[in-house]
Every structure is written in structure tokens, then in C-alpha cells.
Amino acid sequence: MITASSKLALLMEGYVRQRNGKMGFGLLRYGPSIAGCEITCVVAPDEVGQDLRALTGIDTDAPIVGSVEEARALGADTLVIAVATSGGVLPDIFRTHIVSALESGMSLVNGLHGRYAEIPEFAAALQPGANIWDVRLEPSGLRSGRGLAKDLPCRRVLTVGTDMAIGKMTASLELDRGARARGIRSKFLATGQIGICISGDGVPLDAVRVDFASGSIEMLCEKYGHDNDVLWVEGQGSALHPGSTAWVALLRGSMPTDLILVHKAGKTHLDNGLDSFPIPPLTDVVKLYEAVAGAGPGMPQAKVRGIALNCVDLSDDQVSRAIAEVEDATGLPCDDVVFNNAEKLLDALDLRA
After folding, report:
1. Mean pLDDT for each consecutive 10-residue tract of the chain (353 residues)?
2. Whole-number Cα distances in Å, 25 to 19, 131, 328
3. Of 38, 106, 112, 227, which has the fewest CB atoms closer than 10 Å, so is most exposed?
4. C-alpha distances in angstroms, 60 versus 13, 25, 39, 51, 234?
């Protein structure tokens, strides 16, 4: 587990400039403020000497170092495999770093698929007092979904998206932070490995067998739904993506009362070689998610209350224009919750203490 006393080194060799480095980006942005941990450095030999803040746009003083030995000298006690590769496969260049870290007495956080605690070379290198946390393992005691979340007394706000890896977790975390600042009993529910590392709890949905997927989310909502006014359910995948199914389990498991659509400004097609799949007008995407959310009798008729627009890499003026264009096109409140804040979308949800 990552705790407030953890001193993390983020292993990101080859990924500091790629969106698949999102495990590291999430921990850099939210690890200290939410988990309370310290980010001592990023291990990326290919980027040594570069300014991490300039490379990522994240407000951080963490240096980039070239080796685990340098990270250890800075006080790091835990190495995090801080990437989210396609298929959750371990990059070969990471193995030497991992063995060096474990032999030096560091713990390991693994957010990729697989039981790394059972890999012989890693188990042999692990020292007494250290541990390997495999985040992406199916929880025990799961059941199939029963639609029980619809009877919870709390609001359940699910983030849905026009593609993968566009900011659904970030939007949910910022909305949760904004709600708590208003004095609302609010809880972020992590459904992926990054959110789990940040918040300390949740369900790694892509590691759950499909028969239990919606049930796992239902049980997570039941765990926190009686003690909070609103649950922010972290979205996964997209209804527009040919390789994505997790969004269905999230809709059925959480039985959302409200939806927030997440979109990247200017994005017209899916990424990662799927440019033959265009993104429809956002008004059509809104209708699609609302229709699926409320498809059956007795299901909450959840509506998209606003749009969280990811304006990364845009200038201040471009952000303002992009937000205005989306609002004009959809008639819905829109904002970049990182560039600005979550206030406009919280108002759209009518969330007040």
C-alpha cells in the first residue's frame, strides 16, 4: 500500500513524454495532496537533466534521475511502476530497475497486469521488511450485479468519456475535492489502478471477471453510499471505443443518478491507431450515454449535467474559446476542472452543503 509515510520513486523510463505515463502523472499531481506520500523523484535515464514540470505541466519539484541507486540516495523506499502500458505488459527495460530496487530493500508497487510477487526473479530479490503490492488483482467475495445501488440514499455521479485516457479520473478527483471544500460529504470511488494508488481503496475493474464486474462496482457503492451525500465514480473506457466494455459495468453497477461527460478539446477521432473511428457530435454522445444509462424500467434516468473538457496543451485564450464552443454546441455547462476549477460543474449538479 501507499501511505502518508511512503517515499516514492516513479519508474517512467521512455514514458515521461507519453500519455501511457499516466500512472506517474496521476501520482505526481495527486499523490502528495490526497495520499499524503512524498514523490522523491522520477527514474527516467532518457530524460535526466530535463525539468519535469516543463515536460508534464504538473506543479512538482521532483527531479529526474537516471537510476534506482540515485533514487535510493534521495530517500525513496518504494518503486512504483508508473506507466499504464497497452495490455498491462511490463517493458523489458524495467526489469533491471525493479531487481535493483528490491535488492536494495525497496518495496514495489505494480499497477500492471500480473502477480509480480510470484515472479521468481522479483521474489528472490525482495528483502525482509519490504513488499510487492500487485494492485490489479480481482478482489475476493464478489457477486453478480443486482441493481441495488439505485436504492442508496446518495447521489452517484459517473464520469463517461469520448475515448480512453482523456481525464475521467482527474475530473472525478477534482469534483470530489471541490465538493468536500463546499462541506459536502463526498467520496471518490477508484475503479482503476492509478485511482486506487492515490485513494487507497477501490476496484481494479479491468482485473475483474465480466460476470462479477457490475457487482464489484455495486458493492463498492454500497460500502460508501450510506455515509456520503455524493459518490464520484471514476469512469473507464468509452462507449465509442471498440475495445472497451468497462463502461457498461460502471453504468449498471453504480446505477448513476448523474453523468459528467469527459472530452479532450479538439479531439475528432479515437487515438492509438483507431483514427478510422470518428467521435460523433457531443450532443449525440450525450444522448447515447443517457439512453444506455436509463435503458431499463426501474433504472435511474441519469442525465449528463455538464462536460469536463481536457484542455491540456492549450493556451489560456484557447481554453476559454474551447469551453465556449462546447457550451454553444451542446447547451451544457462546460469547464476544464484542472485549468479552472470544479465550481461550474458542481453548480450544474446543484451540489451545495
Report:
1. 94 94 96 94 96 94 97 98 91 97 98 95 97 96 97 98 96 98 98 96 96 98 98 98 96 98 97 94 98 95 98 94 98 97 98 86
2. 9, 23, 31
3. 227
4. 18, 10, 9, 10, 24
